Amino acid sequence: MVERYDSRPIGVFDSGVGGLTVFKAIARRFPAESLVYLGDTARVPYGSKSARTVERYTLQVGAFLLRRGVKGVVVACNTASALGLDALRAHCAVPSLGVIEPGCRMALESSPGGRIGVIGTRSTIASRAYPSALMRANPRVHVVCAPCPLFGPLVEEGWTRHPATRLVVSETLAPLRRESMDTLILGCTHYPLLKEIIQEVMGPEIRLIDSAAAVARELDRHLGHDILPAPPGHARTLDFLVTDVADRFQDVARLFLEEIPVVQVSVVDL
Ligand code: DGL
Questions:
Q1: CATH 3.40.50.1860 in the chain, residues?
Q2: Domain 10-98+214-267 has CATH 3.40.50.1860
Q3: Residue 163 class from Cβ within 10 Å (0-12 exposed, 13-18 middle, 19+ buried)?
Q4: Is 211 helix (H, G, I), strand (E, B) or coil?
Q5: Residues 88/93/95/99 CA torsion (nearest 10 deg)
Q6: Could you give the residue ranges of the DSSP H alpha helices within the chain?
Q7: Which of 29, 75, 77, 244 lies at a CB distance of 3.0 to 4.6 Å from 42, suitable for a disulfide?
Q8: Among 8, 13, 7, 25, residue whose Cα is nearest residue 219
Q9: Catalytic positions
Q10: Is 79 in the pocket of ligand 1 (CB under 6 A)?
């Protein structure tokens, strides 16, 4: 058997800092893989922008990562996955994965009664990308969606356990509680940091689906197939790139990345 390896990095793209939840999951699961994170901090948030704009941004970032020599692109941003992934796949010379299909697959596997809630930014929810993907896979599934535009800013302030956040989460998720969902997809990069509060508010029975874990699992299926793995013993690099000032990124990144070191952050032009 011919062993084939590729030491080029995998690109991980997000509108800002939130995609570091996905970066962390990938970095932990694949310790030999080099990764390049691109946070489009100059244009964040994507979650309140039009479909056309998000698609254009996604294509620009994809082209940038290709010029950086990545062997695959993970679109960590739910909004960009919902609105830009199809266009990216049509234009991108390397395989690209989004968070929506893996998240839906994981939700369908874990939902006992097929009652699945989805929370995300306004643009992700308006796109109906999650319910469409869920219903394509299982037309009998009952899906209820709720936009949660306030969650992202609260996370970025570090208010992940603050009483004000608890109140906002409780008010925003009230419609989902009334519908007695059994599974909830955290359809935004920031929401895994609110897992504890969301679990408290929704009750212990609800299963929370973290798209970061789901996309890392999906990447496992690609490595060795359409994306070649790094050679054994490869000393990997972790690069962090942003499109606007890096200081705030450094602070928030520590909150998101835990043990993963942020050595240096570079500001780039797309
Ligand atoms: N990364 C975005 C997402 O997962 C959240 C932040 C934004 O609105 O850009 O949808």
A1: 10-98+214-267, 100-211
A2: yes
A3: exposed
A4: helix
A5: -20
A6: 20-29, 51-67, 78-91, 100-110, 122-127, 129-137, 151-156, 163-178, 195-202, 211-222, 247-257
A7: 244
A8: 25
A9: 77, 188
A10: yes
The CB of 18 under 6 Å from ligand 1? The reply is yes
CATH class for the domain made up of 100-211 = alpha beta
Whole-structure pTM value: 0.93
| Position in ligand 1 atom list of the atom nearest CA 82 | 10
**What gap in Å lies between CA 101 and CA 104, rounded to an integer?**
5
What end-to-end distance do the CA atoms of the chain give, in Å? 40
pLDDT tens string for the chain (270 positions)?
556 899 999 999 999 988 998 999 999 999 999 999 999 999 999 999 999 999 999 999 999 999 999 999 999 999 999 999 999 999 989 999 999 999 999 999 999 999 999 999 999 999 999 999 999 999 999 999 999 999 999 988 889 999 999 999 999 999 999 998 999 999 999 999 899 999 999 999 999 999 889 999 999 999 989 999 999 888 999 999 999 987 778 888 887 888 888 778 999 999
Residue with tokens 């691109």: 38
